[in-house]
Amino acid sequence: MLVQESFELENGSVEDDNLQYENEIRTGTVWTGIAHIITAVIGAGVLSLAWSTAQLGWIAGPGVLLCFAVVTYISASLISDCYRSPDPVTGTRNPSYMDAVRVILGRKHAWFCGFLQYISFYGVGIAYVITTSTCMRAIQKSNCYHKKGHKANCAYGDHIFMLLFGVIQIVLSQIPDIHDMAWLSIVAAIMSFSYAFIGLGLGFSKVVENENIQGSIRGVPTDTVAQKIWLILQAVGDIAFAYPYSIILLEIQDTMKSPPPENQTIKKASMGAILITTFFYLCCGCFGYAAFGNNTPGNLLTGFGFFEPFWLVDFANACVVLHLIGAYQVLLYNFT
Length: 336
Hints:
Layout: H1 2-22, H2 30-41, H3 49-80, E1 84-85, E2 92-93, H4 97-105, H5 107-148, H6 159-172, H7 182-210, H8 225-241, H9 249-253, H10 262-292, H11 310-332
Antiparallel strand pairs: 1-2
Helix pairs in contact: 2-7, 2-10, 3-8, 3-10, 4-5, 5-6, 5-11, 7-10, 7-11
């Protein structure tokens, strides 16, 4: 009797929690979803796509970009139907990737999947810290080159910038959850558009200056087949890393208001965000490769493919920093 009463109390408590969660006010729309996705997807990796395109060549480079865009949308579309289960429209909410795995596949799978997910988050977090500090250091180097000449010894450390990034993230981590981050995503998305446009514009201006389109169908030549294979694999990996948001899709979908059903809204947001993202990726990758050919740097801004106008390069690097500050919170808020 006591066991039955305890079970009824516990079951009632769980039902109350679920009812309270279902009744939470959600205000997300297609546009806020696009902002969240673009913030998570478009990172400083967009500036390395020119190098990736250079390794793959004029046919394979754009082809791989389009291929990963299609794969990413299909993955996002399938995952979005797991937000509610067992029915994708009327079922119980699964507000995170881990919750969906736990409900659909069981607790053991959830532990294993969560382990892999957190390793992925950990790696992305490290990449964001390093990239942010590199961009801050690039601003210093750009000003140094402008004052002392392009051959000056402008070497700076980046440890202080890593610490500064950490302090800023501690402050931003006081934001309660992703439901309150729409403004941060919008600012970060604007920053990502800014430096992507700048990288695109600088590449286009370089092509006009050269008066010809550089590059080849085979990409950058190498001395051995092994070197070529290694560079191709690196390039494909960089492109794959440029589309990382499926593992936080359900967290973004959990901000969507309904009706209409959340899976319909997030599919529209995914389609819009991926189309916008792929357009920028193709433009930055192709114009960067067309501008520099076999000498395409790993990063158009920090690799100093461009020295002038120095203030524009500085502004673009500052935009990268501001974007990654916001993207860190959106992508890793569950991890932190």
